[in-house]
Model the fold of this input.
Amino acid sequence: MKLKNLVSSTLLAAVGIACTATLAQQAAKPEQLIKWRQSAFQVIGWNSGRIKASLDGTYNKEDVVKAAHTLAAVANSGLGSLFALGTDTGKGWHDTTAKPAVFSDSARFNELSANFAKEASELAAVAQNGDAAAVKGQYAKLTRTCKTCHDDFRTAN
Done:
């Protein structure tokens, strides 16, 4: 009987910890959300740079595949949720560069986010076959989605 109570207590504690962690994430402060999105975009920038370096130099399929899969994972992770109300101004690792339009034109922002996720997923698929020319073409499509979003929704650094 004591073992059953111990197991029940342990499970209850684990569920409580999981719920608390979930609630803490849901109630993140604006500064934390800004840090997370800035970090995510640093990961995107680094992996995009890895692909560009391979395309401009000696093509390395393994590096491109890893970077492309990372881009697809981050692009499909729900980045839009890091642009919550209240994060239009403030500081994460540095001042936010999100334009007010991110928050006032959510339909356009969501459309561009979906395009980015689609093109990143396609890049990951194309990278698997090792055709550098195909990767270069898809990478160009991906970076156009980045530029369009930056033009509409990001202030200059």
User: Anything to note?
Assistant: The domain at 29-153 is CATH 1.20.120.10 (Four Helix Bundle (Hemerythrin (Met), subunit A)). The CA atoms of residues 76 and 114 lie 8 Å apart. The mean pLDDT is 87.
